[in-house]
Design a protein that fits this description.
The chain is of the alpha+beta class and 457 residues long. It has four domains: 176 residues, 2-Layer Sandwich (Nucleotidyltransferase, domain 5); 80 residues, GIY-YIG endonuclease (3-Layer(aba) Sandwich), CATH 3.40.1440; 102 residues, no CATH class; 55 residues, no CATH class. It is built from 17 helices and 15 strands.
Length: 457
């Protein structure tokens, strides 16, 4: 594999978010058969540069005040990068910023990208660190102006020269080929959709020919997970069917994994994607509630989830997907623990008459006064024990922070996600949603991360 035209690229920016922050400086080292050429340019970002960024890069607001905006240098940048292998350290950062800047000018930008972080990891897996400072120290690179665009682009070029000199050509060629290979994509999906996918945590939606999603999923590595669907399309009929239908992908970033799990569960129930099965909406969710009908005598009563009050969980058992599942579970427990089917409401028998299970010697006789009701009730509670709804451990709502997101929870109900104090107060004033099984399970596992909400007095 030959490398006839290369562009080593580095950018300085006002921050780390490509969609919100802007470029302040561009540095490019072009390498081809004609030799090596360097180009750099300050860029007016149209937004203030923070003190932190100024200290890091040395680029001040005064320095860029008379610099051209990106739109004025866009053609020059495109000309220098077009047809070249785009090489950068943590390349997704630089490539993402350039794509967004070009997008703001109404133009698309696309290139074959090689990340030298990934290249270093592949070629030198024995080392733990692969940031630019580590490469400088490990490979003896000469630093001219660190944290300036052209200075760092030169460092990337030097690293490439060290690699070419020290790695077998066939190994380097194979590694670069593997790192720059385009993923296998569905025929009807625009490749640009993959370039725009975020790397972080969140939820993704696959759409077909209309606005109803085919599939909703979540991941801590969105881009990697989406590509995994298409990489597996030859091996699984389900994945192949899904890949053939995908026309568009939408992603929703979340502050962390809990937010992604909650958002996924909510979207699946709301939108009913055809390829999701496990988390589909179930409006028949129900519980067994133990009610004391007489002193020491407790009997189960079936309650729908929507009928349960927010603080009524002390004697609730479940949740069950359907009333049929709830009755099947109770029947199995009755058989296992020799409970009376009549007293559990599973069989209609006249008062004082034995239930059918007692005639088969599978009931200890509470129905005919052979076993005290209090004993039967105690055994019923013990049998249902593993199905008991966990009691809410706080006096009121609690919250979980993930990045900039705050999840508000009350009695296992996810009230919503806030990013400001005003949002939080708004959620507190909103009626609580119905109990939802998947949210309950997600939030139970996250209990250790919850903090009680302090109420103002």
């Amino acid at each position: 594999m030959s490398f006839p035209a290369l562009a080593f690229v580095d950018l300085e920016t006002t921050g780390a978010t490509a969609t919100a922050d802007r470029i302040t400086e561009i540095g490019i080292v072009e390498v081809d058969e004609s030799g090596v050429r360097e180009w750099s340019c300050l860029v007016n970002p149209g937004t203030p540069i923070s003190g932190f960024i100024e200290r890091l890069t040395g680029i001040s607001n005064a320095m860029v005040a008379d610099a051209p905006p990106f739109e004025d240098v866009a053609d020059e940048v495109r000309k220098r990068l077009e047809g070249r292998l785009f090489i950068a350290h943590n390349a997704r950062f630089d490539y993402g910023f350039l794509k967004n800047e070009f997008k703001r000018t109404g133009r698309d930008f696309r290139a074959t990208v090689l990340c030298t972080v990934k290249l270093s990891r592949k070629l030198f897996p024995q080392h733990a660190k692969h940031n630019l400072d580590s490469l400088i120290e490990r490979h003896g690179l000469t630093v001219s102006s660190r944290h300036r665009a052209l200075g760092d682009a030169r460092l990337i070029h030097q690293f490439w020269q060290r690699v070419q000199a020290g790695v077998a050509p066939e190994v380097l060629a194979q590694t670069v080929k593997a790192l720059t290979a385009r993923p296998s994509l569905p025929a009807n999906l625009d490749p640009a959709a993959i370039d725009d996918l975020p790397d972080g945590t969140g939820v993704y939606l696959f759409y077909g020919e209309n606005n109803l999603p085919l599939y909703v999923g979540k991941s801590k590595e969105l881009k990697k997970r989406v590509l995994a669907h298409f990489a597996a399309d030859h091996a699984a009929a389900k994945e192949m069917s899904l890949a053939q239908q995908v026309r568009r992908i939408e992603c929703i970033a979340t502050g962390g994994e809990i937010g992604a799990l909650l958002k996924e569960a909510a979207l699946i129930k709301q939108l009913q994607p055809s390829h999701n099965r496990v988390l589909r909406r179930n409006e028949d969710l129900c519980f067994w509630e133990l009610t004391e009908v007489r002193a020491g005598e407790w009997r189960p009563q079936l309650l729908m989830a929507g009928d349960i009050e927010l603080r009524r969980e002390e004697h609730l058992y479940g949740p069950f997907k359907t009333a049929k599942e709830a009755r099947r579970t109770l029947t199995e427990l009755a058989k296992e623990h020799h409970l009376c089917h009549s007293l559990l409401g599973l069989e209609k028998v006249k008062a004082g008459k034995p239930c059918f299970a007692h005639q088969l010697q599978q009931c200890k006789g509470a129905c005919v006064d052979k076993e005290p009701m209090s004993f039967h009730s105690a055994r019923l509670m013990a049998a249902l024990g593993r199905h008991r709804l966990a009691p809410w451990p706080f006096a009121g709502p609690a919250w979980i922070r993930e990045g900039d997101d705050v999840h508000l929870i009350d009695h296992w109900r996810h009230l919503g996600t806030a990013q400001s104090e005003a949002d939080l107060h708004g959620l507190l004033e909103t009626p609580a949603p119905a109990f939802e099984r998947d949210s309950y399970r997600i939030l139970q596992k996250a209990l250790a991360r919850m903090t009680p909400l302090a109420r103002k007095t």
